[in-house]
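Tokens as discussed.
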């Protein structure tokens, strides 16, 4: 038998197995810095350095590696490791972190060859590495700073990472930088037999057809294969249905039932190892009766269309369906029809936007183990309690959901795509059935085919204004393709409708929204949550009205822009922090200087769930080992909320970062603080953390005064205006300045005061009520707050996007290091949405692979100037922060369209835009067009 020898991090390694180098490094050598993002040579997360050259580990084999020297992050010199940790943390290059070790290795290979690389050389060096979070700019800056440190021209500022001054508004070195840069932080796929010696592996056999009747499932040959633990089908599931809000998603399609899309699971194969698993899956035989699929909205609306779902369960009620309308919304105020009839100018157009793939770098993965009288799941998701609820429902444990424990590990990006269960319930089912640890890991193609996308939209919008350009009314009909299952169709559709009006001042609107079931992959939450689609249409129409009135696109927006004290089109009174006009002013000069080849767009985006729904932030702070440990079951998917929570505590108590920790994010250890969605964590959970921190601070001050502090937990709750202890005693705030960052009253020796409180616990719940949609009030409060933004896009002489100026009102900037990367990443994601990204389907079957999604690379990015504005008067909650996660993705796409329209006079109403230097030929045929 042949043997293959090579060197890994200086050590000679010999193996008799010819396999992917990626798999050998991870599975045999347990080098977890080498990430499996696609195993297709497309994403770069597995980049290592081989004989001095950055190489993707998944395209190299152990046979081809014969005699070569392989270097991973673990093998970098101590000086290199420290340089990259500092540099990436100092500039804000780390968000979800899944791409980061690969970026580090591409950067290290470059710096070893060229110690002083230019920006262009760095861009070129990392062109094979995809980052979906940062927009690349901060990574480029990080590699250049690391090079400067290694040259001796820059020094590592150890104080920055130590964080002795870590309060709100300070340059905070993220809490997870070191473990993400060096690759030892654990995502679910990094759990292996070292953690669970009895680890087995599970994977689903999925439908061959988007719509077909399953006639027979024959798993006998698979079950007879040595090493196979079993094959689970619908009959093995106590309740064969899951769903985030609506339970309409079959765990498995049973014999006799009809599939709804190609991602549908037919059965789950469980085996001792991955080789046996893949062999067994090929032995499962499924007989189908193929049926004609419902390809698009038009086919779904047809009178003779097959009904994809006869019924679903929603909030404990069985809802029967008689057509393919999954959800609908009707948002009205004033009289739009009359207002438009009397308008001086009216424009109407129909707009079309595609499905979009999230393309988070970490594919779905979960590990589950038998635990107590149920299961424990180690998950990558956007809400541990959401996952618990769905999995408990599958087991029939709705009344005892605590039997399911969910622990959220590091999450390699989400953007809304990890709100629904994917691998979690499958791993849990197998673990409970076979009484051993089970890992369920999706391939990249399985991820692309399965998880919900951004909704495709077909919408007709009519906007009017008076002779001075003041908006008078909006009428629109929004149609969403929600695919095979509901996912979050209702909330996303609702947000598209409520935000279709834009951040302006007019009071006549009539907006109708419909989400249709088809046999396409499901659609659900995606960063922007429906607003990217509707705001694209609105902002394009605004430029047309400006031309008819004879004023500039900037001027028409400024005349209509919302200000504090004025009513938004939904009736909500804009709060004191509202700074839309300030964002317009921030880009005015650069826009007017380039007006003939520039485009503008504004946006608003809510923070929090709002619209009358319960949306509480919960946080506990427990003093453990001399540290204030924050417990809140909130998923940090890269946006940096765990860092913000520590900053909130530091601000309230005066503690250094070294005395603060984030506790285990699990349903067993931490309270439910809601989904990481709706740009809510900075505000909703941030205020809960601050509330708990104030309770801790009060106890610390009592210690310094020599007073005795009760050992029982201190519990309080507030609504943003008043605070009460849980025994209904009012909270007396003796330090009103605490609400403003930089004005806290803190102990003289915070660390000593904290140590005296060992074992004490402080709990806080923040819930600020909002009004339901359509509330019978003159000025209903739909959301706790809104962020606002204006983006200016400039085209160069070759009609390429050369500069983007993104001005944002995010309230108080909690972490200046982090916000720029959030804005830059959102801008680039929106630029891809406008110009290059598509999700072609042929008869409902995805035609895209990771490498063909049209994701922008580092050598394609424009200059991005992230601008943030802060008003003197801010909201009284969460130190005035309003979040940045979603709004950063909204205005760039319409601004790009408006720039092209300004250059050539062509209105492009369909995304991705056609007739630009970025346009590419459709490879999936005309079916891609029909599918929308």
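Sequence:
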């Amino acid at each position: 038998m042949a043997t293959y020898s090579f060197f890994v991090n200086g050590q000679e390694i010999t193996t008799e197995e010819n396999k992917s180098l990626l798999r050998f490094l991870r599975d045999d050598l347990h080098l977890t810095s080498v990430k499996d993002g696609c195993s297709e040579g497309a994403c770069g997360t597995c980049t290592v350095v081989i004989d001095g050259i950055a190489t993707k580990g998944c395209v190299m084999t152990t046979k081809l590696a014969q005699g070569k020297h392989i270097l991973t992050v673990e093998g970098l010199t101590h000086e290199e490791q420290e340089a990259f940790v500092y540099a990436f943390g100092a500039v804000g290059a780390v968000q979800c972190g899944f791409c980061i070790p690969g970026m580090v290795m591409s950067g290290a290979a470059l710096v070893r060859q060229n110690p002083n690389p230019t920006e262009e050389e760095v861009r070129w060096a990392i062109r094979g590495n995809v980052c979906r979070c940062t927009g690349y700019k901060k990574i480029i800056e990080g590699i250049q700073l690391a090079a400067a440190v290694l040259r001796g021209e820059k020094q590592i500022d150890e104080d920055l990472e130590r964080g002795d001054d870590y309060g709100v508004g300070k340059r905070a070195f993220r809490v997870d930088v070191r473990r993400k840069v060096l690759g030892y932080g654990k995502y679910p796929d990094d759990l292996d037999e070292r953690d669970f010696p009895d680890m087995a592996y599970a994977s689903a056999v999925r439908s061959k057809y988007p719509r077909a009747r399953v006639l027979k499932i024959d798993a006998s040959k698979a079950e007879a294969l040595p090493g196979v633990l079993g094959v689970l089908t619908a009959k093995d599931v106590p309740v064969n249905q899951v769903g985030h809000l609506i339970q309409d998603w079959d765990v498995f399609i049973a014999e006799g039932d009809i599939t709804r899309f190609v991602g549908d699971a037919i059965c789950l194969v469980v085996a001792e190892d991955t080789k046996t698993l893949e062999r067994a899956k090929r032995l499962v035989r499924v007989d189908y009766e193929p049926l004609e699929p419902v390809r698009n909205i038009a086919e779904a609306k047809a009178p003779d269309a097959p009904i994809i779902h006869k019924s679903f369960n929603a909030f404990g009620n069985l809802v029967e369906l008689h057509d393919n309308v999954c959800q609908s919304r009707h948002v009205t105020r004033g009289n739009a029809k009359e207002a438009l009839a009397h308008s001086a100018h009216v424009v109407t157009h129909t707009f079309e936007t595609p499905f979009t793939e999230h393309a988070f770098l970490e594919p779905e993965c979960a590990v589950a183990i038998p635990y107590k009288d149920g299961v424990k799941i180690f998950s990558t998701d956007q809400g541990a309690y959401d996952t618990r609820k769905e999995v408990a429902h599958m087991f029939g444990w709705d009344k005892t959901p605590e039997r399911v424990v969910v622990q959220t590990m590091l999450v390699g990006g989400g953007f809304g795509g990890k709100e629904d269960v994917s691998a979690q319930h499958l791993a849990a089912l197998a673990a409970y059935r076979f009484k051993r640890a089970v890992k369920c890991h999706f391939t990249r193609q399985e991820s692309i085919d399965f998880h919900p996308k951004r909704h495709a939209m077909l919408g007709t919008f009519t906007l009017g204004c008076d002779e001075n350009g003041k908006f008078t009314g909006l009428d629109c009909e929004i149609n969403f393709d929600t695919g095979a299952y509901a996912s979050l169709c209702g909330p996303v559709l609702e947000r598209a409708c409520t935000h279709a009006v834009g951040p302006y001042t007019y009071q006549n609107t009539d907006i109708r929204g419909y989400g249709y079931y088809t046999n396409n992959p499901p659609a659900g939450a995606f960063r922007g949550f429906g607003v990217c689609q509707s705001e694209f249409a609105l902002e394009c129409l605004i430029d047309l009205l400006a031309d008819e009135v004879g004023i500039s696109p900037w001027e028409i927006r400024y005349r209509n822009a919302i200000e504090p004290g004025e009513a938004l089109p939904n009736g909500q009174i804009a709060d004191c922090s509202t700074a839309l006009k300030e964002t317009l002013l921030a880009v005015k000069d650069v826009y007017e200087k380039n007006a003939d080849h520039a485009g503008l767009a504004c946006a608003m985006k809510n923070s929090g769930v709002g619209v009358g729904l319960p949306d509480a932030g919960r946080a506990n702070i427990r003093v453990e080992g001399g540290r204030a440990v924050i417990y809140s079951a909130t998923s940090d998917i890269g946006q940096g909320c765990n860092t913000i929570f520590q900053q909130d505590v530091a601000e309230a108590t005066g503690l250094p970062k070294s005395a603060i920790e984030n506790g285990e994010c699990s349903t067993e250890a931490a309270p439910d603080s809601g989904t990481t969605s709706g740009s809510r964590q900075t505000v909703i959970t941030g205020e809960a953390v601050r509330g708990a921190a104030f309770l801790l601070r009060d106890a610390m001050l009592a210690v310094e005064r020599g007073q005795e502090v009760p050992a029982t937990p201190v519990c309080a709750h507030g609504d943003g205006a008043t605070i009460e202890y849980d025994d209904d005693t009012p909270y007396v705030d003796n330090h009103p300045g605490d609400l403003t960052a930089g004005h806290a009253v803190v102990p003289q020796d915070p660390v000593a005061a904290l140590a005296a409180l060992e074992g004490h616990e402080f709990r806080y719940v923040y819930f600020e009520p909002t009004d339901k949609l359509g509330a019978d009030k003159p000025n209903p409060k739909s959301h706790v707050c809104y962020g606002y933004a204006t983006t200016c896009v400039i085209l160069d002489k070759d009609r390429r996007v050369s500069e983007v100026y993104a001005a944002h009102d995010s309230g108080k900037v909690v972490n200046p290091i982090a916000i720029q990367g959030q804005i830059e990443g959102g801008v680039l994601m929106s630029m891809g949405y406008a110009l290059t990204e598509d999700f072609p389907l042929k008869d409902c079957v995805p035609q895209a692979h990771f490498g063909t999604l049209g994701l922008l690379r580092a050598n394609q990015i424009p200059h991005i100037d992230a601008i943030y504005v802060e008003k003197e008067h801010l909201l009284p909650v969460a130190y005035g922060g309003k979040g940045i996660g979603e709004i950063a993705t909204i205005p760039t796409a319409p601004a790009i369209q408006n720039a092209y329209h300004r250059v050539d006079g062509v209105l492009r109403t369909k995304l991705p835009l056609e007739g630009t230097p970025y346009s590419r030929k459709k490879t999936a045929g005309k079916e891609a067009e029909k599918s929308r």
